[in-house]
Write a structure and sequence with these properties.
Length: 180
């Protein structure tokens, strides 16, 4: 059985550590790390290393996705990477169980937790808008630079109307703080 883990963060909004999927993925990663410490030495650079890496990658991809949540496609892409790593972890668990390196109970428990993580990730991938920053609703837009680079347009930011434009090659990154 896993122990409850308390996460502390300086981010008042909670950050990625407050996501249930992250907490479950980290808990499973810590369980797997304890589990593989019992593996034979000859598995150190193959099975042990691979299962550790894939389970850790689930957590890191979730954290990276959280920082990309204002871009729904990037957010979903990073979560897809997390789901891929989660599936890889399941494969390594299958191999460890098949080689009798983990018990039936350890295997069932870990697979059950991993499948739950997969379901949570799938839900997040299908509903990225639920995780967008509160002060943003797809407010970052890439458009051809010619559309907004004119001498007629003057730009003076104010508290009421923040509209910043930054040319980046042939594209213009336009940021609107709120709908006009």
């Amino acid at each position: 059985m896993s122990e409850a883990i308390t996460y502390q963060t300086s981010d008042k909004r909670g950050g990625f550590r407050s996501l249930i999927v992250y907490q479950k993925a980290l808990s499973l990663t810590l369980e797997i790390n304890k589990m593989v410490n019992q593996f034979p030495q000859h598995e150190l650079y193959s099975l042990t290393d691979q299962i550790r890496r894939s389970s850790r990658s689930v957590c890191s991809c979730i954290g990276e996705a959280y920082r990309k949540r204002q871009y729904p496609k990037h957010f979903s892409s990073k979560l897809s990477d997390a789901d891929m790593e989660n599936t890889e972890t399941q494969i390594w668990l299958d191999i460890a169980h098949g080689c009798s390196l983990i018990s039936d109970i350890q295997y069932s428990d870990a697979i059950c937790k991993s499948e739950e993580i997969g379901r949570l990730l799938s839900s997040m991938i299908e509903n990225p808008e639920k995780f967008a920053p509160r002060n943003s609703s797809n407010n970052l837009i890439l458009e051809p630079a010619g559309a907004y680079l004119t001498t007629e347009r003057s730009f003076i930011p104010s508290q009421q109307n923040l509209d910043c434009q930054v040319p980046t090659g042939d594209w213009l990154l336009q940021y609107r703080d709120h709908e006009q």
